[in-house]
Amino acid sequence: MSTSLSNNQLAALAARYGTPLYVYNADRISLQYEYLQEAFKGVNARFFYACKALTNISILKHIRSLGCNIDCSSVNEAHLALRAGFDPGNILYTSNGIAFEEIEEAAGSGININIDSLSNLEKFGKKFGHSYPVGIRLRPNIMAGGNLKISTGHEKSKFGIPIEQLDEIVLLVKQYNLHIAGLHIHTGSEIKDVAVFMKVAGLFFDLVPHFPELRFLDLGGGFKVPYRDDETGTDIQLLATSVNEVLLKLQTTYGKTFQAWFEPGKFLVSESGTFITKVNVIKENKTTTFAGVNSGFNHLIRPMFYEAYHKIRNISNPGGPLKKYTVTGNICETDTFAGDRELNEVREGDLLVFDNAGAYGFEMGSNYNSRYLPAQVMVRGGEDHLIRKRDVFEDLLRNQIELD
Ligand code: LLP
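Above: the input record for the complex with LLP. Below: its predicted structure, written as tokens.
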């Protein structure tokens, strides 16, 4: 099973499908999932793919075929998951800031739900009482994650019910005889330090006695993946061992077993993805050489939005001399993928590829500047499949109503 695509394979795909192009190596997704399974062997844990990272239906089907569960952040994602064939019991909907009607709709499909506000918890209690087991999303007041925009557990974060409101939660649970099956705490994305997960797990000790029907403790997602060559990701094996210790300790303390739930997004799909662009223009001036590609932040927003780093490679000239380039997009405002980046000499027409682009790449894309969304290709067992066509002009007008 090949888990990284060669330059020749990528160039052939670019020739076949055109650029810009997202390519996903399904075998790499399988490998990431197997790695989790192996590390957590013997640990009472369950994994839900946080599909906001990448929702293409063929990718979802591939992930289902691995036996993985799925986590959704909108009711539409839950419908996509059902369409991809996931059983309702294997779908989790971790809501935030949504109208109660959306929760009702999700409950209509029988999927697992985490509720993140007191008001929706109360509405849920009124409507379902004890009949529908549900989870509660808590805000632990812990600052963690790669940058502020992707930190969700701190005390200014909109996510979850602040943990200091535990008394109010408990009152509602009693008042409506709610069946609280789980507690959920997700502190953010790109959490390298296992100690953060352990800090969260530690919070459960005081929470568990308030909810006698608890079955699962959901530690969210956020496992770090290495974006730079010198970075390392979350130590998954250490995480598994540490979580197991907590589960065993909870068992001895409270005389019952709990299951740990996780919602990895990036970990499963980020490294499977490569984004291929073509160089439109080289512009040189006194201080900077720009390599302008046929894409922009409308296709990969992470560098502009989070100042995120993506490794860029010139696969058309891998042996060329190293020079510094500022790689820019074609969107009509500041649109920089990388500043003063060393690349093998870049010529107009060369293919520049962005690694680690599987998660939150295409998914956060838009038609800004009336540009087309790129095509998506999945490579599985050495065979490539188009899984989303590139937009065409009509797509730009779809849903518009043209008045005279
Ligand atoms: N669970 C919950 C409740 C989440 O909010 C998220 C991500 C995840 C799981 C999955 O996190 P992951 O394993 O993918 O780190 N667009 C940003 C990341 C935003 C993450 C939003 N929530 C980026 O490109 O870095």
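Notes for the reader.
The chain has two domains: 26-268, 270-391.
The chain has a mean pLDDT of 96.
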